[in-house]
Amino acid sequence: MTAEATGRADDALARELAAIVSPAHCLVDPALTAPYEVDWTRRFAGRARLVVRPGSAAEVGRVLVACGAAGVAVVAQGGNTGLVGGGVPRGGEVVLSLRRLAGVERVDPEALLLEAGAGTTLADAQAAAAAVGCELGIDLAARDSATLGGMVATNAGGIHVIRHGPMRARLAGIEAVLADGSSFARLGGLVKDNVGYDLVGLLAGSEGTLGVVTKVLLRLVPVPKVRVAALVALSVRPGRGGGTAALLSLVDAVRREVEGLEAAEAMYRDGLELVCAATGLAPPVGFPAADAWLLLEVGGPSDPTDTLAELLGAHPDVLDTAVATDAGTRAALWAYRERHTEAIATLGVAHKLDVCLPRAELATFEANVREVVRRAYPEARLVLFGHAGDGNLHVNVVGPPADDPGPDDLVLETVRRFGGSVSAEHGIGVQKRAWLDRSRDPADVAAMWALKRALDPRGILNPGAVFPGGQ
Ligand code: 2HG
Ligand code: ZN
Predict the structure, then answer these.
(1) Which amino acid residue places its CA nearest to atom 7 of ligand 1?
(2) What is the pLDDT of residues 242-300, one digit of tens each?
(3) pTM (predicted TM-score)
(4) Which of 86, 90, 154, 84 has the alpha carbon at shortest distance from 405?
(5) Closest residue to atom 8 of ligand 1, CA basis
(6) What's the gap in Å between 341 CA and the centre of ligand 1?
(7) What domains can you pick out in the chain, each with its CATH number?
(8) How many CA atoms lie within 13 A of 33 on its CB side?
(9) Is any atom of ligand 1 closer than 6 Å to the C-beta of 43?
(10) Is 422 close to ligand 1, i.e. is its CB under 6 Å away?
């Protein structure tokens, strides 16, 4: 049912928006708006006033003008795979779905650039890049749903940050619409372009609070000639500091000896047990004897298998290893890591904490956070995994009620004690907004507020996300 068909003739804004995007793309029927109103975790949800699905940047501009005039807030949404509640309504906002702005418009393997609409999924952009022997340098498990615009807005990370950086580092430009409906484009793709402030970098990670990304220009990298994945089971001898210490010492060794480290992902026995039980995957190499598993991926011009084998063979904590070179076998190894999120979701609604620790503190943090969570929530299931090479662990606590902020605060307080960041790659959203002030200096937060007020003086862009206490 569309705005016209619902008989909500009293809603002048719905009529105006339906006239802009066409009635078919202005959704007011709860059965149609429902999928846009709850995030992937099922932890964050709210009723939208309506959902609008513009088909062009010009329509996005007109939608923002109409909502601004009506004083109605707007929550931009891409693939709805964010995990911190930043892309779903809190109550009464217009959800601005960017998914119709999909399509790869340009792939240039010489200039190493790809231009695409904000609603293009990561998987579609990856396929377009692969067709010309390139890749994006960014990858994550939600690739089939996550959109490029959403990944820019959240400065998404993923499994290749260790080599190519997060989404902000992959960006060569964007087109964006500002709160007043005006728009700008920086899509020239020049190698050097140092004119004025870095608005592209600023909008990356702004979580829909400063503007709406409608198009992205991404840097490409050539596909490496050889790619090898290795799933390494580590068993820790007494006195060597636990599974995470072993993971890190191996990552350090690989960094020193092998060129082209592209991923270094951490898994633990309890997580793999759950993944195998929930998905039916056969137990991985070294299971259940090992304490921790490191999934390594290396890509480059020459075959690193011999160097890698020598290094792994000589490492005191390595119990067993499975190596894969062809795409199918590599994907089979990656399944153990990528299926953690869906396996955890089978247990219930998870408290997901995505945190980064200094290299020197990661191992002690891992042991400590397990202990404090166990003590406070003895019945909870606790699953850790993450991007070991980046110091980024995903701490998942399942059991305590979804609306209880206790587990979040406990984990994040522990992170703070160890000098870490409360958001490594998922952003602040609504989940961690109380932690903005606790994570940044007062002058830093004041500068963020100044930017917010300058670019969105009416406070219509995603109010309630990022900043504590609403706007
Ligand atoms: C990943 O690394 C994502 O797979 C999701 O960041 C993390 O489910 C999570 O906690
Ligand atoms: Zn992650």
Answers:
(1) 394
(2) 799 999 999 999 999 999 999 999 999 999 999 999 999 999 999 999 999 999 999 99
(3) 0.96
(4) 84
(5) 341
(6) 6
(7) 3-97 (3.30.43.10), 104-222 (3.30.465.10), 226-341 (3.30.70.2190), 347-424 (3.30.70.2740)
(8) 26
(9) no
(10) no
Burial class of residue 400 in the structure, from the number of CB atoms within 10 Å of its CB (0-12 exposed, 13-18 middle, 19+ buried): buried
Give phi and psi for 161, each to the nearest 5: -60, -35
Distance 394 CA to ligand 1 centre (A): 6
| Ligand 1 pocket residue status of 352, Cβ below 6 Å | yes
160-211: per-residue pLDDT in tens?
A: 999 999 999 999 999 999 999 999 999 999 999 999 999 999 999 999 999 9
Measure the CA–CA gap between 176 and 189, rounded to whole angstroms.
15
Residue 468 CA to ligand 2 center (angstroms) comes to 24
Mutate which of 39, 340, 381 to test ligand 1's pocket (most atoms within 8 Å of Cβ)? 340
Alpha-carbon distances of 85 from 37, 39, 88, 427, rounded to whole Å: 10, 6, 6, 10
Residue 396 Cβ < 6 Å to ligand 1: yes
